[in-house]
Amino acid sequence: MMDVKKALEAAGWDEEAAADALRAKGLAKAAKKAGRTAMEGLVGVALSDDAGAAALVEINSETDFVARNERFQILVGRVAAAALAEGTAGDVPARRSAATGSMELDVEALLGRPDGTDGDLKMTVTEVAAACGENVRVRRASLVLAPPGGHVAVYMHNSPAGATALGQMGGAVAVAPGANADEAARIAMHAVAARPAYLNRASVPPEDLERERAVLSEQALASGKPANVVEKMVAGRLNKFYEEHALAEQKLVMDDKMSVKKALGADDALCSFARLQVGEGMSALDEEEA
User: Fold this and answer.
1) Segments making up each domain of the chain, as ranges
2) CATH code for the domain defined by 37-195+269-289
3) What percent of the chain stands above pLDDT 70?
4) Which ranges carry the Translation elongation factor EFTs/EF1B dimerisation domain (predicted)?
5) Could you tell me if 186 and 197 are in contact, meaning their C-beta atoms sit under 8 angstroms apart?
C-alpha cells in the first residue's frame, strides 16, 4: 500500500501514470533477479489438434513454491502453445537434433515473438518474474513433428493437480503412419522413465560411438584375450550400449521382454522424440557462470 501511495503522489494522483510507474519498478526488480540461480520449475507440453506435432518447454524458477503458483503455470502453458504455433509455422529458427530427430527451437527468437497482447513473450516472462519475486527463465524448447499420416503421443510425469499438460518431466514421441496409438502413448511414457539419449542405432553420433568403442576396446584388451575374441567382446558390449541408450533398442519399462521397435511393429516406425526434465544437466555452478 505504501508503494501505491508513493507512486500516486509522485504522479500527481494520476492513476494511470502511477500504475505505469509501479509496473516499471516491478520489471526493474525482476531484471535484478535475472542472475539468481533458477533450477526448479516445470515442463509444459502443447499438442496440435491433429496430433501431428507437439512442443515441450522447460521454464525454471528459483523455488518449487513459485512452480506451484497459478500465474507461473499459466506462463508455462502459454510458452508451450507459442512454441508449437511458432515452431510449426517456421517463424522461429530451429536446429534438428541428430540424436533424437526433434527440433530444438531458438529460445531467444521464441521469446521475441508476440504474446497475443501488446508485448512479446520475453516481456510476459519478465512480468511473471516480477509478480512472483523470483528469477524466471525459459531454458529450452523442443518441437516433435510426425510425418504425414503419422502422429505424436505425449506423456507428462509429476503433474500439478488439475494441470495434465505440465509436469516435472515430459516426453513426446512421433511415430509413422499405421503405428498403434496406444503403443505410441506407452512409448512416450517409457521415454520419460528410461531417459534415452538417441533415437536409434543410426542416430548415435560417430564421435559418441567411437568414444564408447575406445573405452570398450580398452576394457576388453585388459582381459588378455586374443584379438578375435576381443573384437567379439566389443561388438557384444556395443549392442548392450545401444539397448541402454537408443530408444528404439530399449526394452520397454512395462515389458522387459519387448523392445520399443518390436512394440511398434517396424524398425522405422519411430520417427523422433524429445524428453525434458526440470533441472536436468544443471548445477548451481553452471547457473552462476551463465
Assistant:
1) 1-33, 37-195+269-289
2) 3.30.479.20
3) 84
4) 54-280
5) no
